[in-house]
Hints:
Elements: H1 3-20, H2 83-92, H3 101-114, H4 116-119, H5 128-131, H6 151-160, H7 174-201
Helix pairs in contact: 2-6, 3-7, 6-7
Amino acid sequence: MTKLTKFIAGFGGIFLLVGCAAKDPRDTGVEYAPQMYHAIPLEPYSQMDYYPYTPDGKHLIAPVAGTVARGKADYVYPFPNTNEGYEEAGKKLKNPLPRTPENIAEGKRLYGLYCIHCHGEKGDGQGTIVQAGKFPPPPSYYGPQLKDLPEGKMFHTITYGKNLMGSHASQLTPEERWKVILYVQELRAAGLAEVEKAAKDQKPVETTQKNTNPKKPS
């Protein structure tokens, strides 16, 4: 080994030792090919500054319109997120699940997870976040707006969301949505019965008044 080779090897060793040393223990120092072990986070459908894998510069191609994801072919919701779709769902969509104690109990459990904070324990729109003043109360299930709401419209609303209520399609499967609706119908029936009972318990109001100053016969 020549003196020059020894010098280069020694200098290279010192350079590597100095380069890898760091005052901050979290500093990795000089790294060889860092891109091999430091993952680059990508936003598949939005990031456009890394490499144009697709014609529009995104990393993944969005699903083709009208296609169904693998494993989801057993259920395709036929009604669009429009007023027309909402009305059509109300006319044509019916709950395929039987009204069994088991289905209602599961609907109650799911209601407690996803609905009670807004719609309230009794379905009167007085949930905890409403009482805290965070949001305006949603309509009562047994109020004039919803007491005659078809179950198809309920399903449509859970699927797409409506007004301040967002979609719950990612949280609840179609079967779970129907179970929640079974329980909502129980709450509505109980509320309507309570309203009817309260109306019957009220005393009738007198509609005639006594004549306190009758005319004397002439």
